[in-house]
Amino acid sequence: MPPVVRFAPSPTGLLHIGNARTALLNALFARREGGTFVLRLDDTDLERSKPEFAAVIEEDLDWLGIRPDLVVRQSDRFSLYGAAAERLRGMGRLYAAYETPDELEFRRKRQLARGLPPIYDRAALKLTAEERARLEAEGRKPHWRFRLDHCVMEWRDLVRGPSHVDMASLSDPVLVRADGSYLYTLPSVVDDIDLGITQVIRGEDHVTNTAVQIQIFQALGGPVPAFAHHNLLTTASGEGLSKRLGHLSLKGLREAGLEPQAVASLAVLVGSAEAVRPIKDLDELARLIVFAHISRAPAKFDEAELEHLNARLVHELSYEDVKERLEALGIVGGEDFWVAVRTNLSKLSDAAEWWSVVNGPIAPAIADPAVVGAAAEALPPPPWDGSTWKGWTDAVKAATGAKGKALFMPLRLALTGRDHGPELAPLLPLIGPERARRRLAGETA
Ligand code: GLU
Q1: Domain extent at residue 26
Q2: Which of 320, 322, 319, 311 is nearest to 258 (CA)?
């Protein structure tokens, strides 16, 4: 059966590279297995969820090259959650509890003081009908807890292997708040059943929800999906990534001009058994995903590593890959220009600098008038090609005796106004005889 998977962000902030990891593991797994990739926007928190964030999430996925087959919004699906809650109530698995947060906190402290685990004592289950009526007459509105089955739950996580939880060690989770709003747990399970999700691939921060969710799947009679909890990414100094870290947001990386494949390669491969390297093709990246090989330790996300990967990727991009983007930057030097400069770029947008060097005007720097003067004399007639440089500099060397850096640096400074840059042999024909002659004469051209 082809898999159906989902990426389920809440649109309350910008996605960061750690979220990209979850999105890519889902989307690429579905792509490889001929399955379906669903984007589920977990927007039940109507206060904090914003359509702007949802729109950016879709743009981010699009930029990464992973298009959802289906987009659903939890805010469109409240009636399903209401019906599920009703069914659970009917089965006696969802019960009304009336404690205020202060009362719960007081009990928790008392349990801790006695050396007991701070687990909800199920006092609400013991309320008589009169007691309940009295609480409601006081104006208390109930919140709703799922009655756990106190067994030991066992399952095999696709990343973490055999897992188990003694359910008696957990409090019955609140599924519906007193104001009728839902916590994440129930809508997630209802949607996973409704959409036929076969694998729940998500961050390790949700491991603790798994056993509870399996019991809800079972109570609602839905098939229980497999679970794959991947390790989380931390900053280089070991802190968790937060949606507030704007500079590590996908939007920020996108706006900084990084290549989506560099971001995707790092997001997928860091903390796996594969060496982190730039993978241009998403199908190839998809083939490298092996859930059981994902490390259980947190993986460090290093911005410098991302920049390095980005540069490696840019160096390998073909002219076809970048033609349109170069043209959008006003760079119309064609394939010869791209091949001449690409290995000098950290980001594709750096090509603009070299385009302005080729195309001018730039102010030349005349460091050694004797060498530059002789070079101007020795300029060969057009047409120029990739071999012109060698013949020309041999002639300048013969005329002046200058060689090595003493020969090349004055020429570089005069032709480009810079002391570093791409190889000059392919650059020279792009600069062309007219501009070269004027620059060697010290003119801005
Ligand atoms: N909205 C949840 C989150 O962003 C989804 C968790 C899940 O995938 O089940 O963490």
Answers
A1: 1-88+154-163+182-316
A2: 311
Whether the predicted pLDDT of 151 surpasses 90: yes
**What SS3 state is found at 214?**
helix
Question: Is the model's pLDDT at 339 over the cut of 70?
Answer: yes
Tell me if 73 is assigned to some domain: yes
Q: How far apart are CA 347 and CA 358, in angstroms?
A: 18
Q: Tell me if 263 sits within 8 A of 20, measured CB to CB.
A: yes
Give the atom of ligand 1 at the shortest distance from the alpha carbon of 9.
Answer: 4
* Confidence at residue 244, expressed as pLDDT on a 0 to 100 scale: 57
Q: 241 pLDDT band (50/70/90 cuts)? A: confident
pLDDT at 237: 81
Choose the residue to mutate in 14, 22, 42, 230 for probing ligand 1, maximizing ligand atoms within 8 Å of C-beta.
42
| Burial call 139-149: b when 16+ CB within 10 Å, e when fewer | ebebbbbbbbe
Higher pLDDT pick, 237 / 186 = 186
Contact of 181 with 154, CB cutoff 8 Å? no
Name the pTM for this structure: 0.92
Query: Residue 325: inside a domain, yes or no?
Result: no
How many domains would you assign to the chain?
Answer: 3
Give the pairing type, strands 152-157 and 161-166. antiparallel
Whether residue 259 sits in one domain with residue 148: no
Counting atoms of ligand 1 from 1, which one is nearest the CA of 188? 9
Provide DSSP, 133-189: HHHHHTT---EEEE----SEEEEEETTTEEEEEEGGGSPPPEEE-TTSPBPSHHHHH
Classify 228 in phi/psi space as left (phi over 0), alpha (psi -120 to 50) or beta.
beta
Site residues for ligand 1, CB cut-off 6 Å: 8-10, 42, 184, 188, 200, 202, 206
pLDDT of residue 3: 98
In this predicted structure, which of 11-20, 44-53, 236-245, 394-403 has the lowest mean pLDDT? 236-245
C-alpha to C-alpha distance for 290 and 264, rounded to whole angstroms: 16
From the list 292, 296, 250, 290, the residue with the least C-alpha distance to 271 is 296
pLDDT confidence of 1, banded at 50, 70, 90? confident
Closest Cα to residue 272, out of 298, 253, 247? 298
Question: 68 and 37 in contact (C-beta within 8 Å)?
Answer: yes
Q: Whose CA is nearest to atom 4 of ligand 1?
A: 9
CA dist list (Å): 179 to 86, 122, 141, 163, 189: 16, 21, 8, 35, 21
